[in-house]
Amino acid sequence: QVQLVESGGGLVQAGGSLRLSCATSGSFFSINRMAWYRQAPGKQRELVAGITTGGSTNYADSVRGRFTISRDNAKNTVYLQMNSLKPEDTAVYLCNADIRGAGVRVYWGQGTQVTVSS
Q1: I need a surface site. Which of 26, 48, 67, 80 has the fewest CB within 10 A?
Q2: Half-sphere exposure of residue 23, counting CA atoms within 13 Å on the CB side?
Q3: What digits encode the pLDDT tens for the residues 12-40?
């Protein structure tokens, strides 16, 4: 059973920083693309940042220059360093991964709350 488990969320003041982690466990052959999404109350889920196995990244315009996605392939873990946080960054942050087992399937973590106070 493949699982993605996020950690690192919390309450921070505007201008502060947080680092999210998402660890993958279970039985699988490989992990392809990994990404972070977020969903604020009453809003649609949106892509925050993605990273390929080779390290190519893409970011939402709203976080580019403030957030950095990275991954440790040996630990099957993806990270999101969030700096210069704004109140509008408040959301549940979810980890997402394309994982190759018997086939390729998309897995989601349960989410971690990030709250930025003004």
Answers
A1: 26
A2: 6
A3: 999 999 999 999 999 999 999 999 999 99
